[in-house]
Design a protein that fits this description.
By secondary structure, the protein is mostly helical. The chain has 8 helices and 2 strands; from the N terminus they run ααααβααβαα. The chain has a single domain, classed as CDP-alcohol phosphotransferase transmembrane (TM) domain (Four Helix Bundle (Hemerythrin (Met), subunit A), Up-down Bundle), CATH 1.20.120. Keywords: Membrane, Transferase, Transmembrane, Transmembrane helix.
C-alpha cells in the first residue's frame, strides 16, 4: 500500500467508478451509469495533472492508469454500446474488437516513447469519448440503422486507436470533448427518462 499517493488514489477512484458502471449496466440500471461515465473522463485527466503537480508519478501509477483505461474506456464503452444497440450480436463482435484494440493501444503506449505533444494513434480516452458522443447522436435511429451505425463507430474508433497517425494531445478535437461529453450524457438521460 506504500504506492498509494494522491494521483494513484484518483486513478483507483476512476477504476471503481468504471466497475460500478459495468455492474449497473448488467443490472439494467442505466441512469447511474450515465451519470458516472462523464466523471471517468475527468478523473483520467485529473490523475495525470496531480501526478505532475505533486511530482508523484511512478511506474506503478502508469500501469494502474492503463489498467483503469482498459476497463473504463475499453470494456465499459463496449458494454454500453452493446446495451444501447439492443444487445445485437454484430455490436457484440464490434465491441470485442474495440476493447481489444483499446488494450493493444494502451500496451503499445506503455512500451513506446511518444513524440513531444503528440500521440501515436488516437488515445483510448479520446476514442471512448468520441464513441460516447456518437452513440448519443445515433440512439434514435431505427433498428438496423442503429446497429449498423454503432458497428461503424466502434470499428472506426478501434482502427484509429491502433493506427500510427500522429494525434495532438492538446488539439481542438480534444478540447471540444469537454463540451460534447456532458451534452451526450444529457441526451442519454433524456432518452432514458422518455422510455421510463
Amino acid at each position: 500500500m506504500r504506492s498509494i499517493n494522491p494521483a494513484n488514489a484518483i486513478t483507483l477512484t476512476g477504476l471503481v467508478g468504471g466497475l460500478v458502471c459495468i455492474f449497473c449496466l448488467q443490472a439494467d440500471y442505466i441512469l447511474p451509469a450515465i451519470f458516472i461515465m462523464p466523471s471517468l473522463f475527468l478523473l483520467d485527466k485529473l490523475d495525470g495533472i496531480v501526478a505532475r503537480k505533486l511530482n508523484c508519478a511512478s511506474e506503478m501509477g502508469a500501469q494502474l492508469d492503463s489498467l483503469a483505461d482498459a476497463v473504463n474506456f475499453g470494456v465499459l464503452i463496449a458494454l454500453f454500446a452493446f446495451g444501447q444497440s439492443g444487445e445485437s450480436l454484430y455490436v457484440c463482435a464490434a465491441g470485442i474488437f474495440y476493447a481489444t484494440c483499446a488494450s493493444w493501444r494502451l500496451a503499445r503506449f506503455n512500451c513506446e516513447q511518444s513524440s513531444l505533444g503528440y500521440f501515436s494513434g488516437l488515445p483510448t480516452t479520446n476514442a471512448a469519448a468520441w464513441v460516447f458522443v456518437a452513440l448519443a447522436c445515433i440512439q434514435w435511429l431505427p433498428g438496423l440503422l442503429h446497429v449498423g451505425a454503432t458497428v461503424v463507430v466502434l470499428v472506426g474508433a478501434a482502427l484509429c486507436m491502433v493506427s500510427t497517425i500522429k494525434y495532438s494531445n492538446r488539439g481542438l478535437t480534444t478540447q471540444i470533448l469537454y463540451l460534447l461529453v456532458p451534452i451526450a450524457a444529457g441526451l442519454f438521460v433524456y432518452q432514458a427518462l422518455s422510455y421510463a
